[in-house]
Amino acid sequence: MGFLDEAKQKAGEFLKSDKAEQQTDQVLDKAADLAKNKLGEDKADQVDKVRNAIDDKIGGQSQADTPDEQ
């Protein structure tokens, strides 16, 4: 296995990790909040749908699927 193959494999493993999920959730939450502020609360449901669709594609779990941390 070459260096690039190994790097690609490690990147893929990281993207499936809990740490990556948390980081992508934070970025998506900030982007969704910004969009809601610019578009108004009447578009909040649409923003949340887009946020969750993106999270499903890149993170694996949507925010609705994750248990609340206390």
UniProtKB/TrEMBL annotation:
InterPro entries (UniProt xref): Antitoxin_Rv0909/MT0933
Basic and acidic residues: bias regions: 46-58
Species the sequence originates in: Corynebacterium mastitidis
Name of the featured protein: Antitoxin
Disordered as annotated region, ranges: 1-22, 46-70
Composition bias type Polar residues, residue spans: 60-70
